[in-house]
Design goal:
The complex is a heterodimer of chains A (94) and B (491). In chain A, strands 2-1-4-5 form a four-stranded mixed sheet, with helices on one face. The longest helix of chain A has 17 residues, at 18-34. In chain A, 47% of the residues are buried. Chain A starts with 6 loop residues before the first strand and ends in a 6-residue tail after the last helix. Chain A has two helices and five strands; from the N terminus they run E-H-E-E-E-E-H. Chain A is an alpha+beta fold and 94 residues long. With 491 residues, chain B is of the alpha+beta class. Chain B is built from 13 helices and 21 strands. In chain B, the strands form five sheets. A six-stranded antiparallel sheet of chain B has the order 9-8-13-12-11-10. In chain B, a hairpin with a 2-residue loop joins strand 19 and strand 20 (467-475). The longest helix of chain B has 38 residues, at 276-313. Classes of the chains: A alpha+beta (94), B alpha+beta (491). Strand 3 (60-61) of chain A pairs antiparallel with strand 1 (28-33) of chain B, so a sheet runs across the interface.
Chain lengths: 94, 491
Amino acid sequence: MTGPDAYSLRLYVAGQTPKSIAAIGNLKQICEQHLPGRYEIEIVDLMKDPALAMRHQIVAIPTLIRQLPEPLKRIIGDLSNTEKVLVGLDIHPK
Amino acid sequence: MSQADPKSPQFKDAEETVAAIHQGDVDAVVVMRALEGPQVILLHGAEEPYRVLVERMSDGALTTGPDGVILYVNNGLCELIGYPSNRLVGRNFASLFEGDPPELVPEVTVEASLSRNGDIAMPVAVWSRPLSIADTRATLVRLTDLSIHRRAEQIAAAERFARSVLEQATEAIVVLSPDGHITHASWRAEQLAERPPVGCRFSEAFQLETQGSEDAGRLAGFSVESLDTMLATKPFHGVEVKLSGDRNSTFLLSAGPLVDENKVNVGSIVTLTDITERKRAEEQQTTLVAELNHRVKNILAVVQSVAAQTVRSSDSLETFSDTFAGRLKALAIAHDILTQTRWIGIGLNELLARVLAPYRSAEGTRVSISGPAILLPAHAVLPFSMVLHELTTNAAKYGALSTPRGKIEITWQLNDSINRSVELVWQEREGRRFKGGATMGFGTKLIDYVISHDLDGSTKVYFDPAGVRWEITFPVSVLAGVRSAPDSTTA
Protein backbone atom coordinates (compact mmCIF):
# COMPACT_ATOMS: atom_id res chain seq x y z
CA MET A 1 0.00 0.00 0.00
CA THR A 2 1.70 3.18 -1.13
CA GLY A 3 0.58 6.68 -2.01
CA PRO A 4 0.59 10.07 -0.37
CA ASP A 5 -2.66 9.46 1.52
CA ALA A 6 -1.96 5.86 2.51
CA TYR A 7 -1.99 4.95 6.18
CA SER A 8 0.51 2.47 7.53
CA LEU A 9 -0.58 1.43 10.99
CA ARG A 10 1.00 -0.91 13.49
CA LEU A 11 -0.92 -2.17 16.48
CA TYR A 12 1.00 -3.64 19.39
CA VAL A 13 -1.02 -6.18 21.37
CA ALA A 14 -0.36 -8.73 24.12
CA GLY A 15 -1.87 -12.06 23.10
CA GLN A 16 -5.60 -11.96 23.49
CA THR A 17 -6.02 -9.71 26.44
CA PRO A 18 -9.48 -8.13 26.34
CA LYS A 19 -8.14 -4.72 25.33
CA SER A 20 -5.90 -6.19 22.68
CA ILE A 21 -8.83 -8.04 21.14
CA ALA A 22 -11.01 -4.97 21.38
CA ALA A 23 -8.32 -2.79 19.83
CA ILE A 24 -7.94 -5.01 16.79
CA GLY A 25 -11.67 -5.11 16.17
CA ASN A 26 -12.13 -1.38 16.68
CA LEU A 27 -9.20 -0.48 14.45
CA LYS A 28 -10.44 -2.67 11.58
CA GLN A 29 -13.86 -1.09 11.86
CA ILE A 30 -12.57 2.50 11.92
CA CYS A 31 -10.24 1.91 8.97
CA GLU A 32 -12.91 0.25 6.87
CA GLN A 33 -15.23 3.13 7.56
CA HIS A 34 -12.86 6.06 7.22
CA LEU A 35 -9.85 4.81 5.22
CA PRO A 36 -11.29 2.23 2.83
CA GLY A 37 -8.67 0.94 0.44
CA ARG A 38 -5.85 3.13 1.71
CA TYR A 39 -4.67 1.59 4.93
CA GLU A 40 -2.38 -1.19 6.01
CA ILE A 41 -2.44 -2.70 9.47
CA GLU A 42 0.35 -4.77 11.03
CA ILE A 43 -0.49 -6.53 14.27
CA VAL A 44 2.52 -7.13 16.51
CA ASP A 45 1.99 -9.57 19.37
CA LEU A 46 4.52 -8.67 22.03
CA MET A 47 3.69 -11.86 23.95
CA LYS A 48 5.41 -13.76 21.19
CA ASP A 49 8.38 -11.42 20.84
CA PRO A 50 8.65 -8.72 23.54
CA ALA A 51 11.83 -7.35 21.96
CA LEU A 52 9.75 -5.82 19.17
CA ALA A 53 8.57 -3.31 21.76
CA MET A 54 11.96 -1.61 21.49
CA ARG A 55 11.40 -0.21 18.04
CA HIS A 56 8.62 2.13 19.04
CA GLN A 57 9.42 2.22 22.74
CA ILE A 58 6.13 0.62 23.63
CA VAL A 59 5.30 0.72 27.32
CA ALA A 60 1.53 0.19 27.46
CA ILE A 61 -0.48 -2.34 25.53
CA PRO A 62 -2.45 -1.98 23.34
CA THR A 63 -0.72 0.85 21.50
CA LEU A 64 -1.42 1.95 17.94
CA ILE A 65 1.39 3.56 15.96
CA ARG A 66 0.75 5.56 12.84
CA GLN A 67 3.89 5.03 10.80
CA LEU A 68 2.67 6.78 7.68
CA PRO A 69 1.85 9.46 6.92
CA GLU A 70 4.49 11.09 8.99
CA PRO A 71 4.92 12.26 11.61
CA LEU A 72 4.73 9.13 13.72
CA LYS A 73 1.79 9.16 16.09
CA ARG A 74 0.69 6.87 18.87
CA ILE A 75 -2.63 6.13 20.53
CA ILE A 76 -2.83 4.05 23.67
CA GLY A 77 -5.89 2.01 24.63
CA ASP A 78 -8.48 -0.26 23.07
CA LEU A 79 -9.47 2.36 20.44
CA SER A 80 -13.11 2.23 21.53
CA ASN A 81 -13.34 6.03 21.44
CA THR A 82 -13.60 6.52 17.69
CA GLU A 83 -13.46 10.29 17.87
CA LYS A 84 -10.26 10.19 19.84
CA VAL A 85 -8.75 7.78 17.32
CA LEU A 86 -9.74 9.94 14.35
CA VAL A 87 -8.24 12.99 15.97
CA GLY A 88 -5.14 11.12 17.00
CA LEU A 89 -4.58 9.83 13.48
CA ASP A 90 -5.50 13.11 11.81
CA ILE A 91 -8.34 11.50 9.96
CA HIS A 92 -11.14 13.81 9.00
CA PRO A 93 -14.49 12.05 9.34
CA LYS A 94 -16.46 11.69 6.12
CA MET B 1 20.31 15.57 35.38
CA SER B 2 18.38 17.21 32.59
CA GLN B 3 14.73 18.10 32.92
CA ALA B 4 12.32 16.74 30.35
CA ASP B 5 10.77 19.33 28.13
CA PRO B 6 6.99 19.33 28.81
CA LYS B 7 6.39 20.36 25.23
CA SER B 8 8.46 17.58 23.66
CA PRO B 9 6.64 14.67 21.96
CA GLN B 10 8.37 12.17 24.26
CA PHE B 11 7.05 13.94 27.32
CA LYS B 12 3.60 14.07 25.81
CA ASP B 13 3.72 10.34 25.07
CA ALA B 14 4.88 9.55 28.58
CA GLU B 15 2.13 11.66 30.01
CA GLU B 16 -0.48 9.93 27.89
CA THR B 17 0.88 6.52 28.80
CA VAL B 18 0.60 7.19 32.50
CA ALA B 19 -2.87 8.54 32.01
CA ALA B 20 -3.92 5.50 29.98
CA ILE B 21 -2.64 3.12 32.63
CA HIS B 22 -4.32 5.19 35.31
CA GLN B 23 -7.64 5.20 33.44
CA GLY B 24 -7.51 1.47 32.81
CA ASP B 25 -7.19 1.83 29.03
CA VAL B 26 -4.44 -0.76 28.91
CA ASP B 27 -4.20 -4.27 30.29
CA ALA B 28 -0.52 -4.96 29.76
CA VAL B 29 2.71 -3.03 30.07
CA VAL B 30 6.24 -3.55 28.84
CA VAL B 31 9.00 -3.34 31.39
CA MET B 32 12.71 -3.35 30.72
CA ARG B 33 14.66 -5.93 32.66
CA ALA B 34 18.41 -5.87 32.92
CA LEU B 35 19.01 -9.43 31.78
CA GLU B 36 15.92 -10.51 29.87
CA GLY B 37 15.33 -7.19 28.10
CA PRO B 38 11.74 -6.06 27.44
CA GLN B 39 9.09 -8.22 29.11
CA VAL B 40 5.32 -8.01 28.86
CA ILE B 41 3.53 -7.89 32.18
CA LEU B 42 -0.17 -8.58 32.14
CA LEU B 43 -2.10 -6.44 34.56
CA HIS B 44 -4.58 -9.26 35.19
CA GLY B 45 -2.29 -12.01 36.46
CA ALA B 46 -5.03 -14.61 36.97
CA GLU B 47 -5.25 -15.16 33.20
CA GLU B 48 -1.61 -15.99 32.89
CA PRO B 49 -1.88 -19.82 33.30
CA TYR B 50 -4.57 -20.00 30.64
CA ARG B 51 -2.62 -17.76 28.32
CA VAL B 52 0.44 -20.01 28.65
CA LEU B 53 -1.68 -23.10 28.06
CA VAL B 54 -3.19 -21.67 24.90
CA GLU B 55 0.16 -20.42 23.66
CA ARG B 56 1.89 -23.71 24.23
CA MET B 57 -0.74 -26.22 23.21
CA SER B 58 -0.15 -28.09 19.97
CA ASP B 59 -3.72 -27.59 18.80
CA GLY B 60 -4.41 -24.47 16.81
CA ALA B 61 -6.46 -21.77 18.57
CA LEU B 62 -7.80 -18.48 17.30
CA THR B 63 -10.26 -15.78 18.22
CA THR B 64 -12.51 -14.09 15.70
CA GLY B 65 -14.53 -10.93 15.97
CA PRO B 66 -18.24 -10.71 15.14
CA ASP B 67 -17.44 -10.16 11.45
CA GLY B 68 -15.23 -13.27 11.20
CA VAL B 69 -11.98 -11.31 11.26
CA ILE B 70 -9.20 -13.11 13.08
CA LEU B 71 -8.14 -11.19 16.18
CA TYR B 72 -5.68 -13.64 17.69
CA VAL B 73 -3.86 -16.86 16.76
CA ASN B 74 -1.68 -19.06 18.94
CA ASN B 75 1.66 -20.61 17.97
CA GLY B 76 0.03 -23.98 17.34
CA LEU B 77 -2.16 -22.53 14.59
CA CYS B 78 0.82 -20.72 13.04
CA GLU B 79 2.62 -24.06 12.83
CA LEU B 80 -0.43 -25.85 11.43
CA ILE B 81 -0.94 -23.28 8.69
CA GLY B 82 2.71 -22.49 8.09
CA TYR B 83 2.43 -18.69 8.41
CA PRO B 84 3.46 -16.32 11.22
CA SER B 85 0.76 -14.69 13.28
CA ASN B 86 1.07 -11.31 11.56
CA ARG B 87 -0.04 -12.95 8.29
CA LEU B 88 -3.08 -14.44 9.96
CA VAL B 89 -4.43 -11.75 12.32
CA GLY B 90 -6.78 -9.51 10.39
CA ARG B 91 -7.64 -12.16 7.78
CA ASN B 92 -11.09 -13.57 7.50
CA PHE B 93 -11.60 -16.92 9.24
CA ALA B 94 -13.15 -18.47 6.12
CA SER B 95 -9.99 -17.79 4.10
CA LEU B 96 -8.08 -20.35 6.17
CA PHE B 97 -9.89 -23.27 4.54
CA GLU B 98 -9.88 -25.15 1.29
CA GLY B 99 -13.35 -25.04 -0.19
CA ASP B 100 -16.29 -24.30 2.07
CA PRO B 101 -15.38 -23.08 5.56
CA PRO B 102 -16.82 -25.05 8.48
CA GLU B 103 -20.11 -23.93 9.90
CA LEU B 104 -19.39 -22.95 13.48
CA VAL B 105 -21.94 -24.40 15.88
CA PRO B 106 -21.21 -23.68 19.56
CA GLU B 107 -19.63 -26.60 21.40
CA VAL B 108 -19.91 -28.88 18.34
CA THR B 109 -16.88 -30.37 16.62
CA VAL B 110 -16.99 -30.43 12.83
CA GLU B 111 -14.40 -31.48 10.27
CA ALA B 112 -12.90 -29.24 7.60
CA SER B 113 -9.87 -28.93 5.28
CA LEU B 114 -7.37 -26.36 6.47
CA SER B 115 -5.18 -24.76 3.80
CA ARG B 116 -1.57 -25.37 4.81
CA ASN B 117 1.03 -23.09 3.22
CA GLY B 118 -1.73 -21.86 0.96
CA ASP B 119 -2.15 -25.01 -1.10
CA ILE B 120 -2.03 -28.27 0.90
CA ALA B 121 -5.31 -29.46 2.37
CA MET B 122 -5.04 -30.71 5.94
CA PRO B 123 -7.96 -32.41 7.69
CA VAL B 124 -8.81 -30.67 10.96
CA ALA B 125 -11.46 -30.93 13.65
CA VAL B 126 -12.96 -27.51 14.37
CA TRP B 127 -14.51 -26.68 17.73
CA SER B 128 -15.90 -23.29 18.64
CA ARG B 129 -17.55 -21.36 21.40
CA PRO B 130 -18.84 -17.78 21.48
CA LEU B 131 -17.37 -15.52 24.15
CA SER B 132 -17.56 -11.91 25.11
CA ILE B 133 -14.16 -10.25 25.55
CA ALA B 134 -14.60 -6.86 27.15
CA ASP B 135 -17.50 -5.52 25.11
CA THR B 136 -16.53 -7.37 21.97
CA ARG B 137 -18.46 -10.45 20.84
CA ALA B 138 -15.89 -12.98 19.84
CA THR B 139 -15.68 -16.65 18.99
CA LEU B 140 -13.00 -18.96 20.28
CA VAL B 141 -12.03 -21.63 17.77
CA ARG B 142 -9.84 -24.67 18.29
CA LEU B 143 -8.43 -26.60 15.34
CA THR B 144 -7.02 -30.08 15.82
CA ASP B 145 -4.83 -31.66 13.18
CA LEU B 146 -6.54 -34.90 12.10
CA SER B 147 -3.88 -35.98 9.64
CA ILE B 148 -1.92 -37.66 12.45
CA HIS B 149 -5.11 -39.33 13.68
CA ARG B 150 -6.01 -40.35 10.14
CA ARG B 151 -2.55 -41.77 9.60
CA ALA B 152 -2.78 -43.59 12.92
CA GLU B 153 -6.19 -44.93 11.92
CA GLN B 154 -4.82 -46.07 8.55
CA ILE B 155 -1.87 -47.75 10.26
CA ALA B 156 -4.19 -49.39 12.78
CA ALA B 157 -6.52 -50.55 9.99
CA ALA B 158 -3.58 -51.90 7.98
CA GLU B 159 -2.32 -53.66 11.10
CA ARG B 160 -5.75 -55.18 11.74
CA PHE B 161 -5.97 -56.25 8.10
CA ALA B 162 -2.51 -57.82 8.09
CA ARG B 163 -3.21 -59.54 11.41
CA SER B 164 -6.51 -60.85 10.06
CA VAL B 165 -4.83 -62.21 6.92
CA LEU B 166 -2.14 -63.81 9.04
CA GLU B 167 -4.61 -65.35 11.47
CA GLN B 168 -6.80 -66.75 8.73
CA ALA B 169 -3.92 -68.20 6.69
CA THR B 170 -4.03 -71.96 6.49
CA GLU B 171 -0.24 -72.12 6.27
CA ALA B 172 2.06 -71.70 9.23
CA ILE B 173 3.42 -68.17 8.86
CA VAL B 174 5.51 -66.24 11.38
CA VAL B 175 7.03 -62.78 11.23
CA LEU B 176 10.54 -62.49 12.63
CA SER B 177 12.25 -59.37 13.93
CA PRO B 178 15.81 -58.87 12.67
CA ASP B 179 17.19 -60.57 15.80
CA GLY B 180 15.18 -63.74 15.10
CA HIS B 181 12.31 -63.28 17.57
CA ILE B 182 8.76 -64.03 16.49
CA THR B 183 6.54 -60.95 16.47
CA HIS B 184 3.46 -62.37 14.74
CA ALA B 185 2.21 -65.91 14.12
CA SER B 186 -0.67 -67.34 12.15
CA TRP B 187 -3.22 -69.63 13.76
CA ARG B 188 -1.64 -72.66 12.08
CA ALA B 189 1.83 -71.63 13.30
CA GLU B 190 0.54 -71.40 16.86
CA GLN B 191 -0.83 -74.94 16.50
CA LEU B 192 2.49 -76.32 15.27
CA ALA B 193 4.72 -74.46 17.73
CA GLU B 194 5.95 -76.22 20.81
CA ARG B 195 5.12 -73.18 22.92
CA PRO B 196 3.25 -69.91 22.39
CA PRO B 197 5.46 -68.59 19.60
CA VAL B 198 5.18 -64.80 19.85
CA GLY B 199 8.20 -63.49 21.74
CA CYS B 200 10.23 -66.70 21.32
CA ARG B 201 13.18 -67.18 19.04
CA PHE B 202 12.19 -69.19 15.96
CA SER B 203 14.34 -72.13 17.01
CA GLU B 204 12.68 -72.22 20.44
CA ALA B 205 9.20 -72.47 18.94
CA PHE B 206 10.03 -74.81 16.05
CA GLN B 207 12.62 -77.58 16.28
CA LEU B 208 13.51 -78.55 12.73
CA GLU B 209 14.73 -81.86 11.34
CA THR B 210 15.93 -81.72 7.77
CA GLN B 211 14.86 -84.16 5.08
CA GLY B 212 17.37 -85.75 2.74
CA SER B 213 21.09 -85.27 2.52
CA GLU B 214 20.96 -82.19 0.28
CA ASP B 215 18.63 -80.27 2.59
CA ALA B 216 20.49 -81.45 5.64
CA GLY B 217 23.63 -79.99 4.10
CA ARG B 218 21.98 -76.63 3.55
CA LEU B 219 20.96 -76.29 7.18
CA ALA B 220 23.74 -78.24 8.89
CA GLY B 221 26.19 -75.32 8.73
CA PHE B 222 24.03 -73.17 10.99
CA SER B 223 23.98 -73.15 14.75
CA VAL B 224 20.58 -72.60 16.34
CA GLU B 225 21.33 -68.90 16.86
CA SER B 226 22.73 -68.36 13.39
CA LEU B 227 19.76 -70.21 11.88
CA ASP B 228 17.44 -67.74 13.59
CA THR B 229 19.49 -64.83 12.29
CA MET B 230 19.73 -66.33 8.83
CA LEU B 231 15.95 -66.86 8.62
CA ALA B 232 15.40 -63.30 9.85
CA THR B 233 17.75 -61.66 7.37
CA LYS B 234 18.27 -63.80 4.24
CA PRO B 235 15.86 -64.97 1.55
CA PHE B 236 15.56 -68.71 1.93
CA HIS B 237 13.51 -71.09 -0.18
CA GLY B 238 12.47 -74.66 -0.36
CA VAL B 239 14.08 -76.79 2.31
CA GLU B 240 12.06 -79.84 3.31
CA VAL B 241 11.89 -80.24 7.07
CA LYS B 242 10.01 -82.15 9.70
CA LEU B 243 9.11 -80.77 13.10
CA SER B 244 10.26 -82.76 16.07
CA GLY B 245 6.73 -82.58 17.49
CA ASP B 246 5.03 -83.78 14.28
CA ARG B 247 7.10 -86.39 12.47
CA ASN B 248 4.21 -87.53 10.29
CA SER B 249 4.08 -84.28 8.36
CA THR B 250 6.58 -82.75 5.95
CA PHE B 251 6.99 -78.99 5.57
CA LEU B 252 8.70 -76.72 3.10
CA LEU B 253 10.65 -74.02 4.97
CA SER B 254 10.93 -70.63 3.24
CA ALA B 255 11.82 -67.12 4.38
CA GLY B 256 11.48 -63.79 2.61
CA PRO B 257 12.56 -60.30 3.67
CA LEU B 258 10.08 -57.89 5.24
CA VAL B 259 10.84 -54.30 4.26
CA ASP B 260 9.27 -51.07 5.43
CA GLU B 261 8.14 -48.16 3.28
CA ASN B 262 11.75 -46.93 3.06
CA LYS B 263 12.92 -50.32 1.74
CA VAL B 264 14.74 -50.96 4.99
CA ASN B 265 14.80 -54.60 6.10
CA VAL B 266 12.81 -54.89 9.31
CA GLY B 267 12.74 -58.68 9.59
CA SER B 268 11.35 -61.54 7.59
CA ILE B 269 8.31 -63.66 6.89
CA VAL B 270 8.94 -67.35 7.45
CA THR B 271 6.55 -69.92 6.02
CA LEU B 272 6.19 -73.60 6.86
CA THR B 273 4.10 -75.04 4.03
CA ASP B 274 2.59 -78.45 4.74
CA ILE B 275 3.57 -80.63 1.75
CA THR B 276 2.69 -83.98 3.34
CA GLU B 277 -0.10 -84.73 0.87
CA ARG B 278 2.03 -83.60 -2.06
CA LYS B 279 4.84 -85.89 -0.95
CA ARG B 280 2.44 -88.81 -0.63
CA ALA B 281 1.02 -88.09 -4.08
CA GLU B 282 4.54 -87.97 -5.53
CA GLU B 283 5.44 -91.27 -3.90
CA GLN B 284 2.18 -92.82 -5.11
CA GLN B 285 2.86 -91.57 -8.62
CA THR B 286 6.36 -93.08 -8.56
CA THR B 287 4.90 -96.40 -7.43
CA LEU B 288 2.23 -96.27 -10.13
CA VAL B 289 4.77 -95.57 -12.86
CA ALA B 290 6.88 -98.53 -11.72
CA GLU B 291 3.75 -100.71 -11.58
CA LEU B 292 2.72 -99.56 -15.05
CA ASN B 293 6.15 -100.43 -16.46
CA HIS B 294 5.90 -103.85 -14.88
CA ARG B 295 2.43 -104.48 -16.30
CA VAL B 296 3.31 -103.28 -19.78
CA LYS B 297 6.23 -105.71 -19.85
CA ASN B 298 3.94 -108.48 -18.62
CA ILE B 299 1.26 -107.85 -21.22
CA LEU B 300 3.83 -107.68 -23.99
CA ALA B 301 5.11 -111.07 -22.83
CA VAL B 302 1.55 -112.42 -22.88
CA VAL B 303 0.93 -111.03 -26.37
CA GLN B 304 4.22 -112.49 -27.58
CA SER B 305 3.32 -115.88 -26.10
CA VAL B 306 -0.23 -115.86 -27.54
CA ALA B 307 1.11 -114.86 -30.94
CA ALA B 308 3.71 -117.64 -30.95
CA GLN B 309 1.19 -120.29 -29.88
CA THR B 310 -1.41 -119.05 -32.37
CA VAL B 311 1.15 -119.24 -35.17
CA ARG B 312 1.96 -122.84 -34.27
CA SER B 313 -1.69 -123.90 -34.34
CA SER B 314 -2.72 -121.97 -37.48
CA ASP B 315 -2.64 -123.68 -40.86
CA SER B 316 -3.13 -120.47 -42.82
CA LEU B 317 -2.57 -116.73 -42.50
CA GLU B 318 -6.35 -116.13 -42.45
CA THR B 319 -6.80 -118.56 -39.57
CA PHE B 320 -3.98 -116.89 -37.66
CA SER B 321 -5.40 -113.44 -38.31
CA ASP B 322 -8.92 -114.31 -37.06
CA THR B 323 -7.75 -116.25 -34.03
CA PHE B 324 -5.10 -113.79 -33.00
CA ALA B 325 -7.48 -110.82 -33.36
CA GLY B 326 -10.05 -112.58 -31.18
CA ARG B 327 -7.49 -113.32 -28.48
CA LEU B 328 -6.16 -109.76 -28.55
CA LYS B 329 -9.72 -108.47 -28.16
CA ALA B 330 -10.21 -110.70 -25.13
CA LEU B 331 -7.03 -109.25 -23.65
CA ALA B 332 -8.26 -105.74 -24.36
CA ILE B 333 -11.62 -106.39 -22.64
CA ALA B 334 -9.83 -107.80 -19.62
CA HIS B 335 -7.64 -104.69 -19.46
CA ASP B 336 -10.62 -102.42 -19.73
CA ILE B 337 -12.17 -104.18 -16.77
CA LEU B 338 -9.02 -103.90 -14.74
CA THR B 339 -8.68 -100.20 -15.53
CA GLN B 340 -12.32 -99.49 -14.70
CA THR B 341 -12.07 -101.36 -11.40
CA ARG B 342 -8.68 -99.75 -10.63
CA TRP B 343 -7.06 -103.17 -10.58
CA ILE B 344 -9.15 -104.34 -7.68
CA GLY B 345 -10.86 -107.15 -9.61
CA ILE B 346 -14.38 -107.91 -10.76
CA GLY B 347 -17.29 -110.09 -9.74
CA LEU B 348 -17.21 -113.47 -11.51
CA ASN B 349 -20.78 -113.24 -12.78
CA GLU B 350 -20.16 -109.69 -14.02
CA LEU B 351 -17.11 -110.84 -15.97
CA LEU B 352 -19.07 -113.72 -17.46
CA ALA B 353 -21.95 -111.42 -18.39
CA ARG B 354 -19.63 -109.02 -20.21
CA VAL B 355 -17.66 -111.67 -22.08
CA LEU B 356 -20.79 -113.61 -23.11
CA ALA B 357 -22.89 -110.53 -23.92
CA PRO B 358 -22.55 -111.06 -27.74
CA TYR B 359 -24.11 -114.52 -27.39
CA ARG B 360 -27.05 -113.62 -25.20
CA SER B 361 -30.46 -114.28 -26.74
CA ALA B 362 -33.42 -111.97 -26.58
CA GLU B 363 -35.56 -114.62 -24.83
CA GLY B 364 -32.82 -115.12 -22.23
CA THR B 365 -32.46 -118.90 -22.43
CA ARG B 366 -29.29 -119.38 -24.48
CA VAL B 367 -26.66 -118.71 -21.80
CA SER B 368 -27.37 -119.06 -18.06
CA ILE B 369 -25.00 -117.95 -15.36
CA SER B 370 -25.50 -119.05 -11.78
CA GLY B 371 -23.34 -119.02 -8.69
CA PRO B 372 -22.50 -117.14 -5.49
CA ALA B 373 -20.99 -113.68 -5.63
CA ILE B 374 -17.23 -113.97 -5.91
CA LEU B 375 -14.71 -111.21 -6.43
CA LEU B 376 -12.21 -112.38 -9.00
CA PRO B 377 -8.90 -110.79 -7.93
CA ALA B 378 -7.03 -108.59 -10.41
CA HIS B 379 -4.27 -111.10 -11.11
CA ALA B 380 -6.89 -113.70 -12.22
CA VAL B 381 -8.89 -111.39 -14.51
CA LEU B 382 -6.56 -111.53 -17.51
CA PRO B 383 -5.96 -115.29 -17.66
CA PHE B 384 -9.57 -116.17 -16.87
CA SER B 385 -10.74 -113.76 -19.59
CA MET B 386 -8.49 -115.62 -22.04
CA VAL B 387 -10.01 -118.93 -20.88
CA LEU B 388 -13.55 -117.59 -21.37
CA HIS B 389 -12.59 -116.37 -24.82
CA GLU B 390 -11.33 -119.81 -25.82
CA LEU B 391 -14.41 -121.50 -24.36
CA THR B 392 -16.84 -119.22 -26.20
CA THR B 393 -14.79 -119.44 -29.43
CA ASN B 394 -14.87 -123.24 -29.29
CA ALA B 395 -18.59 -123.17 -28.52
CA ALA B 396 -19.20 -120.82 -31.45
CA LYS B 397 -17.13 -122.91 -33.83
CA TYR B 398 -17.96 -126.45 -32.77
CA GLY B 399 -20.35 -126.48 -29.82
CA ALA B 400 -23.58 -125.09 -28.42
CA LEU B 401 -23.24 -121.62 -29.94
CA SER B 402 -22.75 -123.11 -33.42
CA THR B 403 -26.43 -124.20 -33.62
CA PRO B 404 -29.63 -122.13 -33.18
CA ARG B 405 -30.94 -124.25 -30.24
CA GLY B 406 -27.69 -124.73 -28.38
CA LYS B 407 -27.40 -123.61 -24.73
CA ILE B 408 -24.63 -123.08 -22.25
CA GLU B 409 -25.11 -123.45 -18.49
CA ILE B 410 -22.38 -121.95 -16.36
CA THR B 411 -22.51 -122.73 -12.67
CA TRP B 412 -19.99 -122.41 -9.89
CA GLN B 413 -19.60 -122.81 -6.21
CA LEU B 414 -17.10 -121.83 -3.61
CA ASN B 415 -15.09 -124.52 -1.92
CA ASP B 416 -13.58 -123.20 1.28
CA SER B 417 -11.98 -126.49 2.18
CA ILE B 418 -9.48 -126.50 -0.69
CA ASN B 419 -7.60 -123.23 -0.74
CA ARG B 420 -10.83 -121.27 -1.05
CA SER B 421 -11.28 -122.40 -4.62
CA VAL B 422 -13.94 -121.71 -7.13
CA GLU B 423 -15.36 -124.80 -8.88
CA LEU B 424 -16.88 -123.78 -12.17
CA VAL B 425 -18.78 -126.01 -14.60
CA TRP B 426 -19.23 -125.02 -18.26
CA GLN B 427 -21.93 -127.31 -19.65
CA GLU B 428 -23.01 -127.08 -23.28
CA ARG B 429 -26.29 -128.69 -24.43
CA GLU B 430 -28.10 -129.26 -27.70
CA GLY B 431 -25.16 -128.13 -29.76
CA ARG B 432 -23.56 -129.89 -32.68
CA ARG B 433 -23.08 -133.50 -31.69
CA PHE B 434 -19.53 -134.59 -31.18
CA LYS B 435 -18.37 -137.64 -32.99
CA GLY B 436 -16.61 -140.25 -30.93
CA GLY B 437 -12.88 -139.78 -30.41
CA ALA B 438 -12.84 -135.96 -30.40
CA THR B 439 -9.37 -134.61 -29.60
CA MET B 440 -8.05 -131.50 -27.93
CA GLY B 441 -7.36 -128.58 -30.32
CA PHE B 442 -5.03 -125.73 -29.53
CA GLY B 443 -7.79 -123.67 -27.84
CA THR B 444 -8.49 -126.53 -25.51
CA LYS B 445 -4.82 -126.92 -24.74
CA LEU B 446 -4.55 -123.19 -24.07
CA ILE B 447 -7.42 -123.37 -21.55
CA ASP B 448 -5.73 -126.22 -19.73
CA TYR B 449 -2.35 -124.46 -19.83
CA VAL B 450 -3.60 -121.12 -18.53
CA ILE B 451 -5.70 -122.63 -15.72
CA SER B 452 -2.84 -124.79 -14.50
CA HIS B 453 0.06 -122.36 -14.96
CA ASP B 454 -1.42 -118.91 -14.53
CA LEU B 455 -4.21 -119.68 -12.08
CA ASP B 456 -2.64 -122.66 -10.30
CA GLY B 457 -5.82 -124.69 -10.92
CA SER B 458 -6.98 -127.71 -12.82
CA THR B 459 -9.38 -128.63 -15.62
CA LYS B 460 -11.35 -131.64 -16.71
CA VAL B 461 -13.07 -131.82 -20.07
CA TYR B 462 -15.73 -134.31 -21.16
CA PHE B 463 -16.61 -134.55 -24.84
CA ASP B 464 -20.13 -135.81 -24.30
CA PRO B 465 -22.06 -136.22 -27.56
CA ALA B 466 -24.84 -134.07 -26.03
CA GLY B 467 -22.41 -131.24 -25.39
CA VAL B 468 -18.92 -130.59 -24.05
CA ARG B 469 -18.48 -130.20 -20.29
CA TRP B 470 -15.65 -128.33 -18.61
CA GLU B 471 -14.95 -128.57 -14.89
CA ILE B 472 -12.54 -125.85 -13.89
CA THR B 473 -11.14 -125.35 -10.41
CA PHE B 474 -8.75 -122.59 -9.31
CA PRO B 475 -8.05 -120.75 -6.03
CA VAL B 476 -9.20 -117.18 -5.46
CA SER B 477 -7.39 -115.29 -2.73
CA VAL B 478 -10.12 -112.70 -2.20
CA LEU B 479 -13.66 -113.98 -1.70
CA ALA B 480 -16.39 -111.49 -1.06
CA GLY B 481 -19.98 -110.79 -1.89
CA VAL B 482 -19.21 -107.09 -2.25
CA ARG B 483 -20.40 -106.68 -5.79
CA SER B 484 -23.94 -105.53 -6.33
CA ALA B 485 -24.42 -107.92 -9.22
CA PRO B 486 -27.09 -110.59 -8.62
CA ASP B 487 -26.01 -114.10 -7.70
CA SER B 488 -27.33 -115.52 -10.93
CA THR B 489 -28.47 -114.31 -14.29
CA THR B 490 -29.84 -115.97 -17.36
CA ALA B 491 -28.90 -114.64 -20.74
